[in-house]
Amino acid sequence: MTWTNLEKLILNENKLGDKGSRMIGSNVVWTNLKHLDLSNNKIGEEDGTAIGKNNNFFTTTKLEIKQLLP
Description:
By secondary structure, the protein is of the alpha/beta class. 24% of the residues lie in helices and 13% in strands.
């Protein structure tokens, strides 16, 4: 399953961390993704930037990577 038609992915509060966020940042399949919510996953600045710069997410109109303050 490649999920090429995936339009909405909500993974908030899933403890993705560095490895999970790198995998999402390098994804080349989700070309129809419109909404990606990765809030509260301890994603660092570098990985968050990589996700935001992923050219395969051109159709994404809502990207959430906000973090709760400790």
